[in-house]
């Protein structure tokens, strides 16, 4: 047998084995979630209380829709009659999630911010979620740069539309190359932490950045080691690769 095909076949049978023995896959099927990823958001929410009834939530990189389902369940409350709104987007055509406004567009496209804001009714959002994943190449540095480009795009959008007190959650690949982004996030949020929810596979490099308590930047990035903030100092734009959301 062709060696590469043999390796491909054994990798896919390994994937099948892992998939069918994965308790999260079984539980997702039992509860009607479209992906096992739903549990990553449920676990982060349980720990950090991110989602609440009545909130406006944007879910970036949403297909097949597990996170969107979790967000819809959280923002609608029959007890309090608070009705939130979830706007979810993916670049691939996907089946809409009942209760959410589902868009198909590339978040790196020039008009994506306008479309998302329009779907939000041009109001503010309380939570921006990004589970955006690039097509991976297997080359670690390339993949890290690709995901960082997506995260930075999501972050620029979050700075534009988050309401005071809002939260930003984004998937990254553990690497340390996101230090400039982290520094900027610390200026805009009361707390910024890395979290690896139990549902995220141990062998996966993915990890989530969770920032809570959005506010205007307390001090410009270049003055971080220069003592207290000066209110008059101009605020530099966050460093971004690519042309995220047509804002760069
Ligand atoms: C891991 S999946 C998301 C899973 C989802 N959170 C769930 O619970 O079902 C990542 C998604 O990001 C989407 N994506 C990647 N790059 C994108 C882009 N530039 N614009 C929009 N979606 C993108 C992919 O199409 C893919 O569906």
Report on the architecture of this protein.
The chain folds into 2 domains: 1-31; 35-218, Vaccinia Virus protein VP39 (Rossmann fold, 3-Layer(aba) Sandwich), CATH 3.40.50.150. The protein is globular. Helix content is 35%, strand content 20%. Strands 3-2-1-4-5-7-6 form a 7-stranded mixed β-sheet, with helices on both faces. It is an alpha/beta fold and 248 residues long. The structure holds S-adenosylmethionine. S-adenosylmethionine binds next to helix 4 and strand 2. S-adenosylmethionine (SAM) is lined by residues 34-35, 37-38, 61-67, 89-92, 106-108, 131-134, 150.
Number of domains: 2
* Largest sheet, spatial ordering of strands: 3-2-1-4-5-7-6
Quaternary form: single chain
Average residue-wise pLDDT: 85
Instruction: Provide the succession of SSEs.
Output: HHHEHEEHEHEHEE
State the end-to-end CA separation: 51 Å
Stretches where pLDDT falls below 50 for ≥5 residues?
A: 224-248
What is the CATH architecture descriptor of the largest domain? Answer: 3-Layer(aba) Sandwich
Q: What is bound: which ligands? A: S-adenosylmethionine
Structural class: alpha/beta
What's the count of strands? 7
Main sheet characteristics:
7 strands, mixed
Shape: globular
What name does CATH use for the topology of the largest domain? Rossmann fold
């Amino acid at each position: 047998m062709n060696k590469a095909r043999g390796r491909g076949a054994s990798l896919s049978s390994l994937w099948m084995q892992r998939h069918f023995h994965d308790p999260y896959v079984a539980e997702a099927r039992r509860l009607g979630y479209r992906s096992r990823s739903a549990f990553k958001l449920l676990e982060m929410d349980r720990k950090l209380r991110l989602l609440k009834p009545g909130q406006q939530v944007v879910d970036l990189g949403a297909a097949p829709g597990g996170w969107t389902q979790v967000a819809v369940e959280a923002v609608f409350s029959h007890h309090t009659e608070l009705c939130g709104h979830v706007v979810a987007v993916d670049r691939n055509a996907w089946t809409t999630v009942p209760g959410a406004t589902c868009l198909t567009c590339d978040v790196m496209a020039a008009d994506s911010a306008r479309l998302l804001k329009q779907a939000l009714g041009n109001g503010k959002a309380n939570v921006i979620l990004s589970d955006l994943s690039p097509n991976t190449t297997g080359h670690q540095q390339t993949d890290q740069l690709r995901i960082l480009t997506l995260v930075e795009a999501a972050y620029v959008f979050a700075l534009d539309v988050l309401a005071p007190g809002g939260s930003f959650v984004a998937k990254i690949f553990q690497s340390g190359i996101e230090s400039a982004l982290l520094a900027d996030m610390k200026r805009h949020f009361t707390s910024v932490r890395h979290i690896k929810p139990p549902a995220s596979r141990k062998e996966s490099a993915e990890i989530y950045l969770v920032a809570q308590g959005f506010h205007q930047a307390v001090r410009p990035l270049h003055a971080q080691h220069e003592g207290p903030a000066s209110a008059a100092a101009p605020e530099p734009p966050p460093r971004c690769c690519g042309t995220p959301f047509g804002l760069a």
